[in-house]
Amino acid sequence: MKRTTVALSAAALLLPLSACGGSAEAGSGSTVTVTVGYQSKTINTVTAGTLLRSLGYFEKQLNALHDGHTYKVDWQDYATGAPITAQMTAGKIDIGSMGDFPLLLNAARGKQLDRPTHLVSATGYNLRGGLNTIVTAADSTLTSLKDLKGKKVSTSVGSAADGTLVRALQRAGIDPDKGISKLNQQPAVGASALSAGSVDALSQFVAWPALLAFQGKAKALYDGAQLNLPTFHGVTASEDFARQHPAALEAFLKAQAQATDYLNGHPVTAAEKVAEATGLPAEVVYLYNGAHGIATFNPALAPQLVSALKQDVAVLKSAKLTGDIDVDSFVDDQYVKKALGTSYTKRLAASPPPTASEVWPKGSEKTLSYKSPKQLLTYLAAHQDGIRAAYVADSTTGTLWFADKAVWVADGDRLLPFVTPATAQDYLSAHRGARTVSYREALERAS
């Protein structure tokens, strides 16, 4: 587990208030260390983690406070949200970012241990649930959720990906507790298990499903957007820290907004920065965080997200992971409203960008967008050796996917992409005469 400290000096470590910003009252002239827990590879939190850190915006905002304190930032990188919550409730992390289900566990654990936390902003979201995907091995014969009955499925219990798995199985008429053999594994362990053939499927959050697909190790079985329920990631802060250092929390949220604007304004460059920091392929990062990516980045705590959080409580309760959670008291938008001022209302009303087909040419710092998948295929057919990545949106869910990994359907002159065989089959069942075609045939038909 990688943990890196930024701008911590030996002298600062000797100061009584430097261990954690919310651990004690800070007097004038003291050094305050703000400890931030983030997940570098959970790339829908990058505006509060990986990208924010690389841009240095938080440190700049803290340096601009001029309130008599010297601020240091300790960035701690984790694989999932659970250890961040453990450190927060131990008083060792002030600000953390994680997915919606871990956020609820964060709320429950904070209340239980009398170290309350609050959701103070959002990072990346998808209003249909497309941030979570169930994948199988590339050579698997499984084509639908019903094929998972009696199979071994890896996921991280208590994560948003586990929530997607539970809900999807229930809709398919499969008991999520008895109908499958569920293995509770860290994302990297589950990915290795899928590659080794020791599990039949993997349900995970970003960026694992697309990474495995991009590497040719997996293919999509279930698109989380089929649930049509919002999934999102957010920022949680210790109540002690927010009370003792409101200016520092406000500085963080201002910096997060700056990082959000940078990502939205420079999606290719942002993807490259995140790729460099995480070791993930930039093509995978861009699938989620690009101009028309699966995730939309906005720090505003939209009502749809809060409503989804309330619906998620029932899933965690049924898994006996928590009891009742007072979501309304956990959500606290006063800090982000103050940090963003008059721009908050505009951000709250903003809509996700429309879906589009997109190609990333080799050697280019810009991508090309097309109104239809067929137009994209026409370009790809003429430039097959000059393509870094190409993306298309599922024709029913809108979830972006790699063009060469999509399931293609020919319906007359139309060429339609789908993330999974199941969504393609639903279309075929409703459109007589339509048929699936290979990616190569789709290119030939478009050229």
TrEMBL record:
UniProt xrefs under InterPro entries: SsuA/THI5 (IPR015168)
Keywords annotated in UniProt: Signal
Domain called SsuA/THI5-like: residue spans: 82-270
Span of the signal peptide: 1-26
PANTHER family linked to this entry: ABC TRANSPORTER SUBSTRATE-BINDING PROTEIN, ALIPHATIC SULFONATES-BINDING PROTEIN-RELATED
Protein name: ABC transporter substrate-binding protein
Protein species of origin: Streptomyces cinerochromogenes
